[in-house]
Design brief:
Elements: H1 4-17, H2 20-27, H3 31-45, E1 50-53, E2 56-59, H4 61-86, E3 93-99, H5 101-118, E4 122-128, E5 142-146, E6 155-158, E7 163-168, H6 170-176, E8 177-178, E9 181-182, E10 187-189, H7 195-203, E11 210-213, H8 217-225, E12 231-234, H9 235-238, E13 245-246, E14 253-254, E15 258-262, H10 270-285, H11 287-291
Parallel strand pairs: 3-4, 3-5, 10-11
Antiparallel strand pairs: 1-2, 5-15, 6-15, 7-12, 7-13, 7-14, 8-9
Family: Belongs to the LysR transcriptional regulatory family.
Keywords: DNA-binding, Transcription, Transcription regulation
GO molecular function: DNA-binding transcription factor activity; sequence-specific DNA binding
């Protein structure tokens, strides 16, 4: 059969995304192309592979039999690609880097121009997301992640400690503090508290209520600037934002450990190796900034 791997990519994208449009976005093709290729594949096999339901495409019994083999072929193709790409010694081409939005905006962007000036033939594709890219499938070449322990199949190095503390607008502090003594301040919090937010609230003003709940860290910061309440923010974010300052008496707390990670097959790719070394050195040089000591005075 011709184009077997391309057809299997269509099949896998549909199984993961659930709709032709979403699968097309994953593969950077139109949804009509996805539908047409699926129809051709089903005609070639002589059977339907998906049930079309209100919730999207669901593999039927025939599709389920193909799925395991398709995933195995995909893993083999990804391994082959990583082997070939990993032996690329040129200092040119694309590098995909993924990191959480506060890290991309406040830490990475100021340093990336320096790397581009030194290596103008390398293009950085920056993905700012809290989601985790699949490095085995080369959704990204490098990732900055925060966890107690990275996945066993990835390699890299631990980054300096990232810390956070509590911020509010000067007007809010003037209305809710008497010197170092808080007077009924309230939190801007999450819809559901996680371990980090609970740790921050336990360390600072544990009796304060949560008056506002918002799903996004940038919203927390903007609400604090607007005087809604106090917010626990990464020091590298809160210390440089206009309109907020550290609240009196607040201590800083550690975030999850930060890691700069890649797949072991890509360590041999020269541009990835050089970029990872650059990032690690630059982030270490900014330890005071990300650890909060630069803005503690």
């Amino acid at each position: 059969m011709q184009n077997d791997w391309n057809d299997l990519q269509i099949f896998l994208a549909l199984e993961r995304a659930g709709t032709a449009r979403a699968a097309g976005e994953r593969l950077k093709v139109s949804h009509s192309t996805v539908s047409r290729r699926l129809t051709a594949m089903e005609e070639r096999f002589g059977t339907k592979l998906f049930d079309r339901t209100p919730d999207g495409f669901i593999p039927n019994a025939s599709g389920a039999r193909i799925l395991a083999r398709a995933q195995q072929i995909e893993a083999e193709m990804m391994e082959l690609e990583r082997f070939v790409v990993g032996n690329d010694i040129r200092l040119q081409g694309d590098i995909r880097l993924t990191a959480p939005p506060p890290v991309t905006e406040y830490l990475l962007l100021p340093m990336l121009e320096q790397f581009r000036d030194k290596y103008p033939l390398i293009t950085i594709e920056l993905h700012s997301t809290f989601g985790q890219a699949d490095l085995s499938r080369r959704d990204a070449d490098l990732a900055i992640r925060f966890s107690e322990k990275p996945d066993d199949h990835l390699v890299g190095r631990r980054l300096p400690e990232f810390r956070e503390t509590v911020y509010a607008s000067p007007d809010y502090i003037a209305a809710h503090w008497d010197g170092e003594t808080p007077i009924d301040p309230a939190w801007i919090g999450w819809h559901e508290d996680g371990p980090l937010s609970l740790r921050a609230r336990t360390a600072n003003f544990p009796e304060a209520p949560t008056d506002w709940r918002m799903p996004d860290l940038n919203l927390h910061a903007r609400a604090a600037v607007a005087g809604f309440g106090m917010a626990s923010l990464p020091c590298m974010m809160g210390d440089v934002m206009d309109g907020i300052i550290r609240v009196p008496g607040a201590t800083s707390t550690n975030s999850y450990p930060g890691w700069l990670l890649t797949h072991p097959d890509l360590r041999r790719m020269e541009r990835v190796r050089v970029f990872a070394k650059f990032l690690a050195e630059q982030i270490v040089a900014r330890s005071d900034f990300i650890g909060g000591s630069a803005g503690a005075g």
